Amino acid sequence: MAVVASVSGLNVAQQALAADLDASQSELLWIINGYTLALAALLMPVGAIGDRWGRKPVLMIGLVAFSLINLASSFATEPSVLIALRVVAGLSAAMVMPVTLSVITTSFPHEEQAKAIGTWAGFAGAGGIIGLFASAAIIDNATWPWVFALPIGLAAVSFGLTAAFVPHSVEHTGAGFDIAGSLLSVLAVGGLVLAFHEGPERGWTDAVTVAALAAGLLGAVAFVLVELRRDHPLVDVRVFALRGLAAGSINLFVVFAVMFSLFLVLVQYLQAVLGYSALKAASGLLPMAAMMMPLSTIAPTIAERIGFRRTLVTGMLLLAGGLVLFATLADPGGGYLSVLPGILVLGAGVGLAMSPSTAAITSSLPEEKQGVASALNDTVREMGGAVGIALIGSVLNSAYRSNIEPTAVSLPPEVAEPVTSGIGGALAAAGRMGADGTALVDASRQAFVDGMAPALYLAAGLALVAAVFTALRGPRTAAGVEAGPDLSDHAEALTESDHSP
Questions:
Q1: Does the global pTM surpass 0.85?
Q2: Per-residue pLDDT at 255
């Protein structure tokens, strides 16, 4: 929760950071994205280090570093300093996030793992909502440096509990560390996440976006080729042919693509269209967390009883249904109650789909690879969030610009530019126009509401595709996702299946 809240918390502090640090829009984006980029890129190598050095010491070192860097960030007086600290904070978060899950999967007995993983997934998923709510309350009542108090406090509590209760676990192996695979994984994930972050802002044909995308794709291809030739790879890429891991990865990717993009859409809707404050808008997300957290805890148990495939397909169908409800029922005249049904159904869908997907990924790799399995799970989540924001956000922005264009053409160029850039710019421009701005406010809000529909339908389509894939290729039972003790056995099985009729 501390790691995830550290992302969402600063989103609501952007205006305060811009005013206090004189930060440009580009610098504000890097204050947010520098953290997520470093976190996503380093997850798999650091997860493997945790397996080798010991999960408990890596977790405790990460928690201390995470707390100290966040504390230092609260005293930053220059945007460049804060950006550098956020990148280092992402490194420390990479020491925390995957190890927390691998500690659970290697410490709990098999009969308790499902509930433990479900609890972890529920808190990790709700961390973004809770972080957004707490940070909005802080911004409304204090200065932006206090936003760092929540992740510091959570990390401090976690350190004490880790020292007292987490057992020491380490996998002793004589195999060398996969340096080449680690470096290529950093290049692949880092390049792709950077491209998805920069594409919507700079444009998809910008040199930085194109270079990052090319580096990410080439890194991914090189990673696969190198890992296939190594006796002890960072990740045996052949395990993606396992039904459980493939289904879990695809569904988790889509869940976080939808969830993160929904935060973007829903918060803008509540603030810009309904006129809510930051705190009130964040409060509007709490019903989603209230549905998500308890369902995430019991979803793996449900999957064991009625079947992994049925549980995941039901969750993804609820996810798609919630998005359709949101798109069709959202009405500024109806206020918050018009979007509440969609939010509740979405929360139920995320709760049912998230933790079984996580359990599928971690169960597909043996115990000595749980750090890598947990990092793979987290990487899928980070990649999904980045792609979702880029893809759904781009569709929303494009639809908004198309809808507002008839109004913008009648405005002076210096007013039309911020109006077409987004609903926030349109409302700011309308505020400077006095009574004449009322028509612009109404037009921009309607343009945003109309633009939400194609973006939300696209997200619903992704959820439906994931549901269909799982229905056709997902394992029927929870037992079907388990890989067993030795990856080599699966590699042989997969090779044999390639040659069978």
A1: no
A2: 92
